Amino acid sequence: MRIAFTTFLSSEVHSLMRIRDVGEWKYYAFERFKGILDLTVKNSIKTRSPVPDWASAKIRNAWNV
Q1: Domain tally for the chain?
Q2: 38 with 8: CB under 8 angstroms?
């Protein structure tokens, strides 16, 4: 989660600062963070980063890996 959030902030902060509408900001932030989080978790499986067993089972089930 920490890696995903750091990546999100470093890549999206300028885009988010330009958005003035709260609803649009929330939608954009959620969609972008979800994509970054998905990639971070998928990569953690490949790099054998520590993922709790319960989370690993949910990830495999959700993403068919």
Answers
A1: 1
A2: no
